[in-house]
Amino acid sequence: MAFKVKKKNPLWSPMVIFMPLALIFGIIGFLRNLLYDKKVIRPVRFAIPTIGVGNLAVGGTGKSPHIEYLAKILSPYIEVASLSRGFGRKTTGTLEVMGNSSSYHVGDEPLVLKMKFPNIGVFVGSNRAFAVPELVGKRPQTNVVLLDDVFQHRSVEVFENMLLTEYNLPFYQDFLLPVGALRELPTGAKRANTIIVTKCPPAISPDQEKDIIAKIKPNINQKVFFSTFDYGLPYRLFQPTSRIDLNKDMEVVLFSAIAGTDYLMEYLKNRVNMIHSIEFSDHHYFTADEITQLHKTFSDLKANNKIILTTEKDAVRLALLRDQIIALQLPIFILPIEVKFIGSNGDHFDSYIKNRLLGFEA
User: Fold this and answer.
1) 343-362 pLDDT, tens per residue?
2) How far is CA 36 from CA 20, 171, 246, 260, in A?
3) Distance CA 59, CA 143 (A)
4) pTM (2 decimals)?
5) Distance between CA atoms of 10 and 23, rounded to whole angstroms?
6) Of 25, 51, 247, 260, which is the most buried if we count CB atoms within 10 A?
């Protein structure tokens, strides 16, 4: 089902009073990029291929689900490893994520990746230039490293640079921080090998594709792809074999701490009767008091057909409060998510990536 999430144009926001700050921010970013473009500062190059997944804007464009997609299509054939900063973790340095790691130590998204793909190497480390060699030292069999949120980290040379941009607020309609959400000027998109328009309507038309591509203005070597999110059947927290169908008689308490719930909320509106949303900032660590309040909110609902719904990355943080959740018998269900490539060239993405890796020269 096609749907559209409405977002405000940042140029019509009260934030325009911060335009001078945005211009200063843009100049600083431009000068920094110029130093790399002119090779005054040279990035570190690695002996194995790297695939970077990043964006020009702050917020949730879907980087982690796209990392998962890459792991899914590549790991059956080659040795894959992933490196991310581990945002929200309470540790420092480079760490390998294990199946029994805590999100408190390694962050939520790397832990979700490890749980989904236990055979790949998953690492966290803020300094990519040091962390990649450390990763390869621990896993010398690695054939490719997936780098999460690396587009602005120009201290490392990325072999395949993927830029994600949201369908409902693409980078060419956005503006620099703090007026808009851009971390750097829109011209930064020219550094990408591949541009992926994310969170698209599943039934995006060829005319819509052409219009977006015309506004992106890719150069002759850049590829543009379109992707959407494919949600699966919710499964119960701590009981993954227990699944449930969403239906129009159901009331849902959405309990989440992610970068943006607009797309998820729109999806749920088409499938359940009523949504009660309890939202926190991205990567928030839930407290016992918040779980107690969740129990009260849920208990106060009069509906007989009701559940609590959360996301996969929220679930690994909720697991830190397992005993309390079980004691309160909270029916928390996890909504799984996958990336699906769509549009006229959606079927070509997998082969494109595999062919790119075949062309790598150390």
Assistant:
1) 888 899 999 999 999 999 87
2) 25, 22, 50, 32
3) 30
4) 0.93
5) 14
6) 51
